[in-house]
Structure formats: structure tokens, C-alpha cells
Automatic annotation (TrEMBL):
<keyword id="KW-0479">Metal-binding</keyword>
<comment type="function">
    <text>Involved in the biosynthesis of the thiazole moiety of thiamine. Catalyzes the conversion of NAD and glycine to adenosine diphosphate 5-(2-hydroxyethyl)-4-methylthiazole-2-carboxylate (ADT), an adenylated thiazole intermediate, using free sulfide as a source of sulfur.</text>
</comment>
<dbReference type="GO" id="GO:0009228">
    <property type="term" value="P:thiamine biosynthetic process"/>
</dbReference>
<feature type="binding site" description="in other chain">
    <location>
        <position position="63"/>
    </location>
    <ligand>
        <name>NAD(+)</name>
    </ligand>
</feature>
<feature type="binding site">
    <location>
        <position position="238"/>
    </location>
    <ligand>
        <name>glycine</name>
    </ligand>
</feature>
<comment type="similarity">
    <text>Belongs to the THI4 family.</text>
</comment>
<keyword id="KW-0408">Iron</keyword>
<dbReference type="InterPro" id="IPR002922">
    <property type="entry name" value="Thi4_fam"/>
</dbReference>
<dbReference type="GO" id="GO:0005506">
    <property type="term" value="F:iron ion binding"/>
</dbReference>
<dbReference type="InterPro" id="IPR036188">
    <property type="entry name" value="FAD/NAD-bd_sf"/>
</dbReference>
<feature type="binding site" description="in other chain">
    <location>
        <position position="36"/>
    </location>
    <ligand>
        <name>NAD(+)</name>
    </ligand>
</feature>
<feature type="binding site" description="in other chain">
    <location>
        <position position="127"/>
    </location>
    <ligand>
        <name>NAD(+)</name>
    </ligand>
</feature>
<keyword id="KW-0784">Thiamine biosynthesis</keyword>
<comment type="subunit">
    <text>Homooctamer; tetramer of dimers.</text>
</comment>
<dbReference type="GO" id="GO:0016763">
    <property type="term" value="F:pentosyltransferase activity"/>
</dbReference>
<dbReference type="GO" id="GO:0009229">
    <property type="term" value="P:thiamine diphosphate biosynthetic process"/>
</dbReference>
<feature type="binding site">
    <location>
        <position position="159"/>
    </location>
    <ligand>
        <name>Fe cation</name>
    </ligand>
</feature>
Length: 264
């Protein structure tokens, strides 16, 4: 059968925009498709929420692809292994409480199972801004403002569009981009010691792993933070190529949102 280039183009355009239009309004918008954002989305959609996930890169997955210094193995501790077991990702015991896994298997499996669970991922899209509105007398984050990554790279004067959400998650890693944007443009105070994005401290694996989970929280009404963004916002240490804290941070973030959702 002959192929018609016009039908190929129409199929891509129509299907993509059907998908985008269906996700203009969602229960939760997650920004950053690294391990924390993926686990968060997976847990939420399993519990019935409509989840849309954005990442500025074409290849979603964050920093897990490269392992450490492009040695594509990563380490997780016992708590992290429990989540990898849930995703059926193979781990090997190295020493007590230290497990290794192939970073390519880990991140491809996380991505695949998150998508198959029902999370809609849009890659190549950057967040320009957050939506900040007054609801019942208090300000609340109500979504994100998106544009093509290439538009921002080229500094083109092209207006963005808005995605509305009941909950918004900053899983943008070291940059904590949503939290930083909210403070800089909205002049608000976050749920941190200083009210601002404090910035991450130097590496300390043990403390960094613990704090990634401890600092996963709602930092402003409607805005949650997980993964390395949680440490950057609250001024905690980085942890390097051990990923259990990242995985558990994503799960905790989902649990916090689900608790608020159940009360809603």
C-alpha cells in the first residue's frame, strides 16, 4: 500500500493536539521527569488522579541515565530497593544496605511503567512561569505556563499557554525552577526557614538522602517539591549517585497530595 506524506503529518498533528487539549486541565501537573517526578506521577495516577508531566529535554529521565560520571550503574539503599522491587527493576547486593542496578534498565523501566499507568508526559516543553491566583482570600498556585524549550533557547518573543492544575509539583532538580520563579516573580514566602529558596549545600550522602525525603512537602499553597528540588529549596545537602532518597521523595510527595485530595 502506498504511503501518503499528508496523512502521516495529519496523524501526528491531530493525535498530538488531541492529547494536549485533553491535558490543558489536570489534577496534578508535575514539572521534571526524573526519578522523583516519575514515581510521584505513577503513585498519583494509580490512585485515580489525572496527571500531566512536563520535561524540558527530549530524553526524559533526569540524571539517572548517566549513573555517576557516565558509569551507568547506580546505588540504592534498602528503602530505595523497595520501590525498585515494585517496578520489577533488578538489583544486586554489593554490601549490606548497598544495592546496585543498571541505570539504563532503571530509568527506562520507570518511564515505561509510568506512561503505561496513565501519566501523560510532554517532552521538549519548558516552564516559563507559574499560575498564581487568589482563592478564597489566599494566594494559591494553580498551574504552569508552558512554551517550547527551543523557543526559550532561541529567545524568541512567542507567548506561552497555560496548564491548569489543582496540584503542582516542582521536581526540576538542583534548579528548583518553579519555586525560584514563584519567589522571584510573585514576591511570596515559601515554607522554608528563610521564606526563600535557600540553595543546596555540598555533598553529604547520608544527610542528603534523609533530607530529600524530609524536605518533600507543600512549600506554598498548591505547590509541592520533591527530589533534589526539595533539598535545593530548603538548603539541604546533595547526595550524589545514590537514588533511594529520590525515589522515596517522589512517593512521599504523592502521598501528601493524596491526603489533601481525599479531604477535598
Amino acid at each position: 500500500m502506498a504511503l501518503d506524506e499528508r496523512i502521516i503529518s495529519r496523524a501526528i498533528i491531530e493525535r498530538y493536539f488531541q492529547k494536549l487539549l485533553a491535558n490543558i486541565d489536570c489534577d496534578c501537573a508535575i514539572v521534571g521527569a526524573g526519578p522523583a517526578g516519575l514515581v510521584c506521577g505513577y503513585e498519583l495516577v494509580k490512585n485515580g488522579l489525572k496527571v500531566t508531566l512536563f520535561d524540558k529535554r527530549l530524553s526524559v529521565g533526569g540524571g539517572m541515565w548517566g549513573g555517576a560520571m557516565m558509569f551507568n550503574e547506580i546505588v540504592v539503599q534498602e528503602e530505595g530497593k523497595l520501590i525498585l522491587d515494585e517496578f520489577d527493576i533488578k538489583c544486586s547486593l554489593f554490601e549490606p544496605n548497598y544495592y546496585t542496578t543498571d541505570s539504563i534498565e532503571a530509568i527506562t523501566t520507570l518511564i515505561s511503567k509510568t506512561v503505561k499507568a496513565g501519566v501523560k508526559i510532554f517532552n521538549g516543553i519548558e516552564i516559563e512561569d507559574v499560575v498564581l491566583k487568589k482563592v478564597d482570600g489566599d494566594y494559591k498556585v494553580g498551574g504552569v505556563v508552558i512554551n517550547w524549550t527551543t523557543v526559550n533557547m532561541a529567545h524568541l518573543p512567542v507567548d506561552p499557554i497555560v496548564i491548569s492544575s489543582s496540584f503542582t509539583v516542582d521536581a526540576t532538580g538542583h534548579d528548583a525552577h518553579l519555586a525560584e520563579t514563584l519567589v522571584r516573580k510573585g514576591g511570596v514566602k515559601l515554607n522554608t526557614d528563610s521564606g526563600a529558596v535557600i540553595g543546596e549545600k555540598p555533598m553529604w550522602a547520608q544527610i542528603g538522602e534523609q533530607d530529600t525525603v524530609n524536605h518533600t512537602k507543600e512549600i506554598f499553597s498548591g505547590l509541592y517539591v520533591c527530589g533534589m528540588a526539595a533539598n535545593a529549596v530548603s538548603g539541604a545537602h546533595r547526595m550524589g549517585p545514590i537514588f533511594g532518597g529520590m525515589l522515596n521523595s517522589g512517593k512521599k510527595c504523592a502521598q501528601l497530595i493524596l491526603e489533601k485530595w481525599s479531604r477535598k
